[in-house]
Amino acid sequence: MSFKSGLSELTPVSMRTLILKSATTLLTSPMRRRMARDGAALAARLRGERSTVRYFHQADDPYSHLAAQMLPLLRARYAVEIEVHLAPPPEDSAAPDRERLRGYGLRDAVRLARAHGLEFPSNPALPALEAVLRLQAILAHALDRDRFDATATAAGNALWSGDMRALEAMAALDGAAEPGLADQSLAAGEATRRRLGHYLGGMFHFEGEWFWGVDRLGWLERRLADRGLDREPGARPLAPALEPILGAPPAGSPPTLEVWFSFRSPYSWLVMPRIRRLARAYGAPLELRPILPMVMRGLAVPRIKTLYIALDGKREAERLGLPFGAIVDPVGAGAERALAVLHHAIPLGLGQEFAELGLKAAFADGIALAEDKGLFDVARRAGLTDAQTAAALADETWRTRVESNRAALLDAGLWGAPTFRVSGGPAHWGQDRLWMLEQDIRAAMTPAI
Prior knowledge:
By secondary structure, the chain is an alpha/beta fold. 53% of the residues lie in helices and 8% in strands. The protein has 18 helices and 8 strands. A hairpin with a 5-residue loop joins strand 7 and strand 8.
């Protein structure tokens, strides 16, 4: 549909937009979520089950090591059964760029552990395969004897410290060398995880809903409290979500912030208005570094992952007070056209406005960036004229900027969106890491003594 044509006309593309908007609005609706929760709870009661949280532990996953430390606290606080399963790493299709993920996870877990008062070595090492196999055997043995909580932290600390001698001592002390027990536990855990519909380690499952690690434990706690299972109602959650405090800025000069984002990333939408607010609070310049969506860069995003991200994005949007759910996937033409317009909007000083409005259009307003009607409307609200938008769409030079941003992102040790950092420092990944960025801003602005 040309932007000069009748805007009320329904073309095949705009009919597709209406269908996508309606389907995703239903998928992410609070009513559907309530019905799914109630249905899962009823099914469990009909099976004669007590309220049960299932936790899936991946031995070589730093986030699983942190999550496992919460198990004794959860058992003490909530009147719920906790069923632990060992699980293997996700398939390659669900964990693109696995080596960068492993390296980033180590340094991210160090700061996450510190923030939540959990244990993780300050100088962790990537474990060798032999050490991971030994830990799996130890944990399978502990599970078989109902001693997982008591074993997981000490054994995990040994793994992440690179202390093979300590792992061997634990294995010898417990006799954790029963042939095939670890393989059996992993196979059973993977089968249960697949049946329930997920792919990651460090995951909690309760009555049809998934919660990732310490970062989403607050949502699980809220669910349990809503079901009347909290033994300390009204008390502070064990793992509250972490957000910037937006305190008074230190006296130093504000650093430049960089943010890599994708017009297809729902978490990029959740981060954009907040990182702009954070930059304004500290007077920090914000450099936009747009990239193509992962699938347009040759990285797989399986359907099960897309579904989980949409549902998790809705929960997080509600926590943050942001609209979310009327989604029209901009993959392909929508993303490319938005990148072309953004390329022209940035030098006009309108890049941040267009980026935020474009992301909101795709994930909250149900607007198709692949259609002229939707894209031109977003561009107008960002301050561009129709002539400027048309000129941007006729210009292919945006591809050079996007490729440069992709290369810089890989050099920073990451691959996905949203990613951000301070003045070329360590990069952080995910909309739930803005509190780390704020810490880096404050450190950069604090004069050395």
